[in-house]
Amino acid sequence: NTTSIIDYLSLTSIDIAAVVLPFYYCYGLSIFHTHLKVGGSMILQNNFALLGAVINNILTFKCTGFAGVPSHIQILLRKSETFKSTSFPHLRYVTQAGGKLHPSFITEFIQTFPQINFFVMYGQTEATARLSYLPPKLLSDKIGSIGKGIPGVTLQVVNNQGNPVKPGEPGEIVAKGDNIMVGYFKDEDATNEVIKNGWLYTGDMATVDDEGFIYIVARKKEIMKIAGNRVSPKEIEEVILTIPEVLDCTVEEVSDELQGTAIKATVVLTNSYELNFTKEKIFKHCREKLSVYKIPRYWEFTEKLQLTSSGKKAKKV
Fold it and tell me: pLDDT tens for residues 212-248?
């Protein structure tokens, strides 16, 4: 897996990575492994909240690479006052994994920094950890795609019968390769749920296009059933995140006395905007872009993004 990542990122001993991810997190560990193998360097920053220090380190140490999860990219683009106006002459590439970064942020990044190669990547801890990447030159044509399997990995989207899906047909992403885990430690039942005939069943639902590029739709367990309709929360989040005043959005299914279940959206605003105006702007946009049954019934607005120690969104339990 390390060799494959080195190959598609073209890493060498002169590369210097700005690291804001912990090494106990598989994405962070892959940065350690790749730069160790090529003899590169790493600048360690254990507090991403200090945005000025992160930007200063990239500039001071002439970092050639930066790796982040979606929240890191979103915060840099919409919370930092200086990031988008700063020139990074040595920054050759940026990688993003650890969850889906919505296309509106990808577009915003590549329009702001057209000279920086932006790699969308996909993986799982059970795959040690990288499974796919999308070459930067294809970003505009394949926006929203996680690309195809990396060297050494066979990646497919299959239906309930285990057969590859047709273009546009939904299915589950499965993977095979030497990077796939043997199983969960002392948990045979959990292992048998995800490892079937040598394939890792990722739990991610996706479609493919005519050229075999993969597009994630939702987590298998995240699909909501609202008033008899199957709804993907990512589709609704995507619409809300196109609003410039929105930093992040989480859509979930909640109990509702009237119809049993309903949709709730928790929206993180970038700054202290006039709340009523911003709310109405979001509601109007949803009415224009979403079917009636996909418009959230409940809303919560906040200015604080709750993150785990690895930078991912902290999901409610």
Answer: 999 998 877 777 878 667 788 888 999 999 999 999 9
Token reading at 295: 């418009």
39 close to 64: Cβ distance less than 8 angstroms? no
For 278, list phi and psi in degrees, rounded to 5.
Answer: -65, -40
- Choose among 174, 172, 123: nearest CA to 150: 123
Q: 116-136 pLDDT, tens per residue?
A: 999 999 999 999 889 999 999
Q: What is the 3-state secondary structure (H, E, C) of 228-259?
A: CEEECHHHHHHHHCCCCCEEEEEEEEEEECCC
Higher pLDDT, 217 or 201: 201
Going from the C-alpha of 175 to that of each of 50, 62, 82, 132, the distances in angstroms are 37, 36, 40, 10
Cα separation, 164 vs 157, whole angstroms: 6
Q: Using N-to-C axis directions, what is the helix angle for 233-240 and 275-289, rounded to 10°?
A: 130
CA distances (Å), origin 225, targets 14, 220, 254, 259, 288 = 51, 12, 11, 11, 22
Identify the CA nearest to 34 among candidates 42, 46, 45, 25: 42
Please state, in angstroms and rounded to a whole number, the distance separating the CA atoms of residues 208 and 216.
Answer: 9
Question: Coil, helix or strand for 184?
Answer: coil
How many CA atoms lie within 13 Å of 11's alpha carbon, on the beta-carbon side?
A: 29
pTM: 0.81
Q: Contact 252/262 with Cβ under 8 angstroms?
A: no
Residue in the block written with tokens 């993977």: 175
56 three-state secondary structure: helix
Is the sign of the CA dihedral 74, 116, 15, 138 positive or negative?
positive
Q: Which runs of consecutive H residues, i.e. helices, occur in 195-314?
A: 233-240, 275-289
C-beta of residue 149 within 8 angstroms of C-beta of residue 179: no
Q: Which two tokens stand for residue 31?
A: 């940065």
